[in-house]
Predict the 3D structure of the following.
Amino acid sequence: MTHDIYMYIAVMSAVTLAIRILPLTLIRRQVKSQFLRSFLYYVPYVTLAVMTFPAIIEATHVPAAGAVALFFGIALAWFGASLFQVAVTCCVAVFIVECLM
Amino acid sequence: MINQLNPLAPSRRELLLEGAHDGIPIALGYIVVGFTLGIAARNAGFTPFMGFITSFFNNASAGEYAAFVLASSDASYIEMAIMTLIANARYLLMACVISQRLAPDASLLQRVLIGFDLTDEIFGITAARYVTRAVEPAYVYGAMLVALPAWSGGTAMGVIAGSILPPYLVSALSVALYGMFIAIIIPPSKKDHIVGIFVLLSFGASFFAAHLPYIMTLSSGTRTIILTVVLSSAAAILFPIKDDNQQSDENKGIDTVTDADREMEARRP
C-alpha cells in the first residue's frame, strides 16, 4: 500500500465536515423565496422516507421480517408512540419473525 | 436567548438530558452499524484507533464504507475526496434545512458543533422537534454525546472483534434506525396530508428507483439525493407552504416561542 491511511482519513474527514458545516456557517439569513422555504420544509420527510423504504426490508435476513417491522412501526407511530418505543418495537418484530421462520 | 424570553423554557441541562434520551435509540443502532463498518475497516488494514477516528470525524455509513473499500484498493487521495463528496452530498441539503432553523444570532461555535455530527438520525430528530421554533443547541449536543461515542466505539470494536455478533442480533438491531425514521415521518403525515402523500410517494419512488435499470446502478446515496430534490421540488411547486404570520414575520423572528408552540412541540415524540 503506497498511500498513507492517516492521509485517507484526513481527506475524507475534511470533505465530510465541510459538507456538514459550511451551509450552517455561511447561510445566516432566512431564505425569502417561497419555493426554497417550501422545498426545505419538505426535504426532511421526503429524504427520511426515501432512506427507509425499501432499505428496511433489505436490512434483515428475511425480507418479511423487515416488512413486519415497517408495518408495526407505522401503526405505533400513527397512534403516538415515542421514538424509542417505535425503534424497539421494530427490533423485537424482526427478532420474533426471524425466530419463527 | 429563548430562556430569557420564556421563563417556562427548559434549562440547558434539561435540554441536554432530553437530547441524550432521544439519542439512546440512535446509539443502539449506531453500535451495530459501527461494528459492521469496523469489519470493512479491518479488511482495509485499519487499526482500531484508525477506525475510531475515521468514525468520529465522519459518522456516515455509506461514505465510510465506500472509503474503506477505496482504501483497500489503494485509490488516490483525489478519488477518495470525490467518493466521499458524492456519498455524503445529502448532508449538504440537511445542513441547509437546519441553517434555516437556527436562531439568527447562533454563534459560529454553535454552528460548527451542530454541523460536526449532523447525521441522518440527528438531523431527523432535530428537524422533527424544531419545525417552527429555533433549534436549541444543547438538545443536539445531548443526542451527539450519546450517539457519536457509540458509532466510533462500535467501529473500533468491529475492527477488533470482526464478525463476533450473532447474525440474528445484527439483523434485529439493524432496523432500529429505520424505526426511528418511521417515528419521525409518520406523526406529521397524520397531521398534514400533503406530507403524508409525499411520504407514500417517496416510499414508492425509492422502491422503483432501486429496481429500475440504470438508476439502480447509482449508489443509494446518489439515488437519495435525486429523489429528495425531485420530490421536494414537486411538493414545493404544487403545495407551497403558506407564509402565515408566525413563520414569515421577520420582525417576530424565528426565535419567538409562544406557549402554544411549546405545547405543540411537547406532544411530538
